Structures are given as structure tokens and as C-alpha cells.
């Protein structure tokens, strides 16, 4: 009961004062546990110009368990799994690092910051992470290509 | 719940804050006007019921009061029930459960410090950990239960929590809560949780449980007929059961007796009432909307009232006025304008904030620059630094037209904040190139000094080397002299014992040959 009240509070907080370049809405008005986050690729990153759709799913026992973040738009990024799930799971999103006082605003900001600066030392896609570390130019090129191809404006 | 015994009850008693018992206990017979004196006579000293070993098991109510969060409630509600009667009483009156304070509607804005970081509601039964983080009791318990591997860490800072147990009775992790905190929490103003049912009550949060338990007209209580099992709002709880269907005299619909008045007041399609203002006979279902908008006698104000028209008239006379009133004609335009202005103001605030942040960063960078290179630069620099940074960069950069026209004002009248920012950016760039130059100079200087230093060091090293060499030579001399002396001593001793005169002569011959060597070494020692 109070958990959903907290979620509604966080939702109004995020929708009334969204982090730069993001937009948050519910996928289904009747379910506050599934949020859709529209994230514009940050200007200073290789994802600039892209529009990414993310799904933020809150578990039943939120805030005691961490939310789950999935990229629905394909993205070339060391910290996002390159499959149909597109899951991003690092830092505070790990269940052993999650703290109940964390805010979803911070989760969204973290996702945005990871687009600006990927974290290759905590990668799901190790091949991309290696490329990021050893051949930055090639990485940036592919990331830009993917952004144009999958995350361009529709 | 454990078996009843006096220790538990003693504990309960000591927990109870002795508050003044001015409030009558819930009136169990349904006569809402029972007086306090009657109460006092019936329940002379409520605590006596509790302290002695009870003949019967304690009532569920009393037990619930034991676990109740509100100590105050425990004093007020529980001891007033004689244990023997409790069961039969409970059947007839069902008090509502503890109110979940997080579901309440808070009217006063709550300070951020009173908000539980887990449920983001004003704290409910706050618990303070050794690390000084505070949570609702329930939130903390749930957070700790959810932790894996048997770890029990503070949800905020992960400091280990000692003494926590799933059994509330064994928990030892709580430290005392500042009284001011509980007072502030108790003083938050909330609406009655029965607000949706129609209760208008609003008051301090500390009072809400009492209000719901004792006074709220809309609290659902058990039907006075014990076999019925239904509930009824306190205000309708009479002597008899109202849970039977009856027919509305007007519309012939079958309605619960309990709901009959409400039906006839506002729902019955066949029933009509005269409007209290215009006198027209209006169906009760439409009466509310009639009064608020349609009734020709309702006083309404001109649509231009927010913008200055003070005209008010009954609904019927408004139309002619709106046709002539210039403000009413302008009203849609004005409201659109107002909305636009609001959004622009909000945007401006945002931009202002951004500018402030950038300016702060800029000036901090500048101060950093001037403190770091003040020593290496000409003495004019500190003076320059003291003057307004905007002013100086304005004189450096004549291209920015706006600032050069009025460089004396504190805030040059830039056309837009973007221009302002660009301007700041430009001067920042100048600063950076200046720092670059300074760094290059510094670099050259350090290289030179380093070179000089190392040269000198090299020279010194050569000197030392030479000195060491000399000493080595001397040591060599000394050593060989000593060796010779030893041989000399051992020579004469060995000669006589062996008995060979020739051998003695040979040794005697070798000794004089070594003499000068020794002497020369002595001479060199004296020289030194
Ligand atoms: Zn809480
Ligand atoms: Zn802590
Ligand atoms: Zn009420
Ligand atoms: Zn009944
Ligand atoms: Zn009727
Ligand atoms: Zn009327
Ligand atoms: Zn008017």
C-alpha cells in the first residue's frame, strides 16, 4: 500500500522535474510498476541524436529490491546486453548494491551518465568493452552507426 | 501472542503514558451522548483491571492495545474494557484497526527531514539506528528482512545493525528518538482517513487514531445486532440492525434500510425537492448540479472576475452582462496570456539557475587562476584580478557589443542569457590560453633550474670521486705497510727457532729494504 504511494510520489517527482533529455511515463496508466523512459542521447556522447526507449520495471517488493532497467532500443554500449532484453545491470542496480533509499531519479540519471561515459570495467558486453578500451575510434564509429540506424527519429 | 501473565501486563502498564482521561470510552450501547461522569463511575480506575492477574484471558482488544504503536491509545482505549466483558463487547463493537499513517492525506507540507527515506512518507513509529539514520519501524524491518546472507545493514549507509531480530520483542537495535522529532511528527496536520466517506475532520496526526476510534461519524462499527455481522457507520449505529432491505416509497426500488435516507436525499429518481433559491421543483439527483451552475438565482461572478470585473449576479442576469463587459470578452485571451507568462517565468527561472551555476564555476576558476600564478606574473595582475571580471573581459574583447556599450554596470545588459554565456565562454577561453602560456614559461624555467642543479651535482660528484680515490690509495699504502711490518716481526722470531743463521741473515737483509717504504707512509701520514 505504502510502496505504491512511494512509487506515485517518485513518478510525480520525475515527471514534474525530469532530468535533462528524459521523459517518463507509465506504459499502462493502471500499473505504476512499469515505467517507460524516453532518453535522448546526450549531446556530448556518441549517442547524440538518438532517441532511446527504456523500460524501468519495479519489482513487487520495491523499494526493497532494485528496479530492472531494459533498453528497448538497440544500443552499442559495453554496459547494455546486446540481446532482445537490452538489460543494464551495474552499480546501484545490482541487488547486492541496491539501497532502499535510492531514488528512481538517480537510476535514470545513472543510465544517462553511462551513455556519456560507459563503464568498461563492469561490462556485460566484454567484446565491446575491449574495443572501447583498445580501439576507441572503431567503437565510436559503430556506436554512431547504430544510433543512426536504430535510434534515429521516427 | 503469549499466554497472559502479569509481567506482560505490567509492561503494558509501564508503557502507558498517564494521560488525562477526559475522553469517554467508546460508547458501546450506541448512545453517543454518554457523559464523562457516567464513565468515571463505570470504569473507576482503569488501571486496576490491568494490574492484577486476570481471571479470564485478556480480551483481544487489550492484547491488540499491547502491540499498539500509540502509547496514548493504550492508556485510553484498552484499560477501559473490563476483561470479563471484553468478548461480548468485541462482538458488538469493532474498533477500526490501527491507521496506516503513510496512507493519510497530509495537509501541512512536511519537512524533508521528517520523511522516511524508504517509504517517502512522514515517519511512522520512527526508529533510530546507531549510525543515526532514522526510518519507520515497519520500513526498517522490511528492509532488513529483505537483506540476504543474514546480513543486517543500515539501508542508508550499510553500517552493521546489531541486535535486530525478526521478533519485535527481541529487537535491541533501536536508540532513543529525540522527543522533538516525535512531536513534530505528531503535529503534522492530516485529514481524517474517512474523508472519502464524508468526514471533514482535519487535525494533528497524533490525534487521528483517537478521532477515528472514538468520534468519527464515518468509522465503521459492527452492527448492534450481534448475529448480523455487517458494519455500520458510527452516526447510523442505533439500537437496532438496519441491514434489511426495504422499499423506497417513491420509486419502489429495494434499498437497504441503512442507505434509505441517503437514497431519498440524493439518489431517488422519483423524488423531487423545491430548490431553496429559485423555488423550482428539481429531482433530488440533479439538485447539486442545479445549485452549482443552473439555478437562475445562484450568484455567479463575471468570467472576467480574475482580471478586474467585480460584477456578480444571479445566473440568469449574467448573460447580458458578459455580452457588454469588455473584460469578459478579453478573458479567454487574458487567461491564455497568463498561462504563457507562467511558463515563460518558469523557463526564465531555469535559465537563471543555469547562469548562476556557470557564473559560480567561472569565478571559482578565475580565483584559482589568480592565486596560482600571482607570483610568476607582473604585479599588475592582482590589481586586474580585483576589478570586476566581467568588466575586464569586456575591455579585452571588444567584439561583444552589448558589454562594451555599458561596461560600468554590474550586470551588463546582454540581449539574452545565451549571449551572456557565450561571452563568459570567450573570456574563459582567453584565461585558459593565458594559463597555457604561463605554464610554458614555468616549464622552461623548471627545466633550466633542473639542468643547472644537475650540473652542479655532477661536479660535486667528480670532486667526491677524486677524494675517495685518494683515500683508497692511502688505505692501500697503509695496508701494505702493515703487512710488511707483520712479516718483519714474524721473520726474526722464526729464524732463531729454526736455528738457520742463513735464514736469519736473509730476513735481516729483507728488513732494511722495506724500511723506506714504511717511512714514506709515515711521512705521508704526517703530511695529512
Ligand atoms: Zn517509512
Ligand atoms: Zn545508517
Ligand atoms: Zn473522521
Ligand atoms: Zn445489521
Ligand atoms: Zn426512491
Ligand atoms: Zn434553483
Ligand atoms: Zn464583467
Short description:
The complex is a heterodimer of chains A (154) and B (528). Chain A is of the alpha+beta class and 154 residues long.
Account of the 3D structure:
- By secondary structure, chain A is of the alpha+beta class.
- Chain A has one domain: Roll (Ubiquitin Conjugating Enzyme).
- Chain A has four helices and five strands; from the N terminus they run H-E-E-E-E-E-H-H-H.
- Chain A has a five-stranded antiparallel sheet.
- In chain A, helix 3 (126-134) crosses helix 4.
- Chain A is globular, with a radius of gyration of 15 Å.
- The model of chain A has no long low-confidence stretch (mean pLDDT 91).
- With 528 residues, chain B is mainly alpha-helical.
- Among the domains of chain B are: 11-236, Zinc/RING finger domain, C3HC4 (zinc finger) (Herpes Virus-1, 2-Layer Sandwich), CATH 3.30.40.10; 245-289, Zinc/RING finger domain, C3HC4 (zinc finger) (Herpes Virus-1); 383-469.
- Chain B contains 18 helices and twelve strands.
- In chain B, a hairpin with a 5-residue loop joins strand 1 (126-128) and strand 2.
- The interface between A and B is medium-sized, with 16 and 16 residues.
- Bound molecules: zinc ion (ZN) (7 copies).
- One zinc ion (ZN) binds at residues 192, 194, 199, 201, 211, 216, 218 of chain B.
- Chain B: Pfam families: zf-RING_UBOX (PF13445), zf-TRAF (PF02176).
Which secondary structure elements does this structure contain, and how are they paired or packed?
The complex is a heterodimer of chains A (154) and B (528).
Chain A: H1 2-16, E1 22-26, E2 34-40, E3 51-57, E4 68-71, E5 87-88, H2 104-116, H3 126-134, H4 136-151
Antiparallel strand pairs in A: 1-2, 2-3, 3-4, 4-5
Helix pairs in contact in A: 3-4
Chain B: H1 6-15, H2 36-42, H3 48-51, H4 60-67, H5 71-76, H6 86-92, E1 126-128, E2 134-136, H7 137-146, H8 179-186, E3 189-191, E4 202-204, H9 205-215, E5 220-222, E6 231-233, E7 245-247, E8 254-256, H10 260-267, E9 272-274, E10 281-283, H11 287-294, E11 299-301, E12 312-314, H12 315-324, H13 326-373, H14 380-386, H15 389-396, H16 401-405, H17 417-498, H18 501-527
Antiparallel strand pairs in B: 1-2, 3-4, 5-6, 7-8, 9-10, 11-12
Helix pairs in contact in B: 13-17, 17-18
The structure holds zinc ion (ZN) (7 copies).
Residues 302, 304, 309, 311, 321, 325, 327-328 of chain B line the site of one zinc ion (ZN).
Amino acid at each position: 500500500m505504502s510502496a505504491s504511494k512511494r512509487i506515485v510520489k517518485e513518478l510525480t517527482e520525475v515527471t514534474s522535474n525530469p532530468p535533462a533529455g528524459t521523459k517518463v511515463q507509465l506504459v499502462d496508466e493502471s500499473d505504476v510498476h512499469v515505467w517507460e523512459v524516453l532518453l535522448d542521447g546526450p549531446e556530448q556522447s556518441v549517442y547524440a541524436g538518438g532517441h532511446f526507449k527504456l523500460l524501468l520495471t519495479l519489482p513487487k517488493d520495491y523499494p526493497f529490491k532494485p528496479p530492472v532497467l531494459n533498453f528497448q532500443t538497440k544500443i552499442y554500449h559495453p554496459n547494455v546486453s546486446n540481446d532482445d532484453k537490452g538489460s543494464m545491470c551495474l552499480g546501484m542496480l545490482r541487488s547486492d548494491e541496491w539501497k532502499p533509499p535510492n531514488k528512481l531519479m538517480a537510476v535514470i540519471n545513472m543510465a544517462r551518465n553511462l551513455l556519456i561515459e560507459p563503464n568498461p570495467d563492469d561490462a556485460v558486453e566484454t567484446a565491446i568493452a575491449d574495443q572501447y578500451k583498445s580501439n576507441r575510434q572503431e567503437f565510436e564509429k559503430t556506436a554512431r552507426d547504430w544510433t543512426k540506424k536504430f535510434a534515429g527519429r521516427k | 501472542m503469549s499466554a497472559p501473565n502479569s509481567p506482560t501486563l505490567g509492561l503494558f502498564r509501564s508503557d502507558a503514558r498517564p494521560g488525562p482521561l477526559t475522553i469517554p470510552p467508546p460508547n458501546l450501547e450506541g448512545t453517543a451522548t454518554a457523559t464523562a461522569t457516567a464513565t468515571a463511575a463505570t470504569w473507576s480506575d482503569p488501571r486496576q483491571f490491568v494490574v492484577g492477574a486476570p481471571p479470564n484471558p485478556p480480551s483481544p482488544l487489550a492484547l491488540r492495545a499491547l502491540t499498539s504503536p500509540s502509547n496514548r491509545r493504550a492508556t485510553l482505549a484498552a484499560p477501559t474494557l473490563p476483561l470479563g466483558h471484553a468478548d461480548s463487547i468485541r462482538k458488538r463493537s469493532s474498533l477500526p484497526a490501527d491507521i496506516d499513517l503513510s496512507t493519510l492525506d497530509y495537509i501541512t507540507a512536511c519537512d524533508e527531514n521528517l520523511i522516511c527515506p524508504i517509504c517517502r512518507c512522514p515517519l511512522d513509529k520512527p526508529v533510530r539506528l546507531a549510525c543515526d539514520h532514522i526510518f519507520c519501524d515497519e520500513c526498517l524491518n522490511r528492509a532488513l528482512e529483505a537483506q540476504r546472507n543474514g546480513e543486517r545493514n543500515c539501508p542508508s549507509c550499510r553500517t552493521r545493525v546489531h541486535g535486530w531480530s525478526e521478533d519485535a520483542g527481541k529487537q535491541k537495535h533501536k536508540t532513543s528518538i529525540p522527543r522533538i522529532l516525535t512531536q513534530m511528527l505528531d503535529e503534522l496536520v492530516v485529514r481524517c482517513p474517512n474523508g472519502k466517506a464524508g468526514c471533514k475532520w482535519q487535525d494533528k496526526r497524533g490525534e487521528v487514531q483517537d478521532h477515528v476510534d472514538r468520534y468519527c461519524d464515518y468509522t465503521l462499527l459492527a452492527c448492534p445486532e450481534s448475529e448480523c455481522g455487517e458494519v455500520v457507520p458510527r452516526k447510523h449505529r442505533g439500537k437496532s440492525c438496519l441491514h434489511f432491505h426495504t422499499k423506497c416509497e417513491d420509486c419502489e426500488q429495494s434499498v437497504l434500510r441503512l442507505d434509505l435516507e441517503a437514497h431519498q436525499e440524493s439518489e431517488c429518481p422519483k423524488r423531487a425537492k423545491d430548490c431553496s433559491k429559485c423555488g423550482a421543483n428539481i429531482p433530488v439527483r440533479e439538485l447539486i448540479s442545479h445549485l452549482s451552475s443552473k439555478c437562475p438565482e445562484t450568484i455567479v461572478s463575471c468570467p472576467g472576475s480574475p482580471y478586474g470585473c467585480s460584477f456578480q449576479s444571479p445566473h440568469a442576469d449574467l448573460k447580458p452582462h458578459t455580452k457588454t463587459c469588455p473584460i469578459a470578452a478579453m478573458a479567454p485571451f487574458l487567461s491564455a496570456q497568463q498561462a504563457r507568462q507562467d511558463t515563460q517565468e518558469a523557463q526564465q527561472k531555469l535559465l537563471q539557475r543555469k547562469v548562476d551555476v556557470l557564473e559560480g564555476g567561472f569565478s571559482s576558476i578565475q580565483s584559482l587562476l589568480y592565486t596560482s600564478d600571482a607570483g610568476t606574473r607582473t604585479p599588475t595582475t592582482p590589481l586586474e584580478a580585483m576589478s570586476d571580471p566581467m568588466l575586464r573581459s569586456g575591455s579585452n574583447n571588444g567584439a561583444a557589443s552589448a558589454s562594451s556599450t555599458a561596461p560600468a554596470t554590474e550586470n551588463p545588459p546582454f540581449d539574452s542569457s545565451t549571449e551572456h554565456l557565450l561571452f563568459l565562454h570567450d573570456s574563459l577561453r582567453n584565461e585558459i590560453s593565458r594559463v597555457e602560456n604561463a605554464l610554458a614559461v614555468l616549464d622552461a624555467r623548471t627545466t633550466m633550474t633542473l639542468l643547472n642543479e644537475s650540473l652542479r651535482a655532477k661536479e660535486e660528484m667528480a670532486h667526491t670521486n677524486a677524494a675517495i680515490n685518494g683515500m683508497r690509495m692511502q688505505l692501500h699504502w697503509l695496508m701494505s705497510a702493515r703487512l710488511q711490518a707483520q712479516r718483519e716481526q714474524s721473520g726474526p722470531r722464526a729464524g732463531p727457532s729454526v736455528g738457520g743463521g742463513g735464514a736469519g741473515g736473509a730476513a735481516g737483509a729483507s728488513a732494511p729494504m722495506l724500511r723506506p717504504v714504511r717511512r714514506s707512509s709515515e711521512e705521508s701520514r704526517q703530511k695529512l
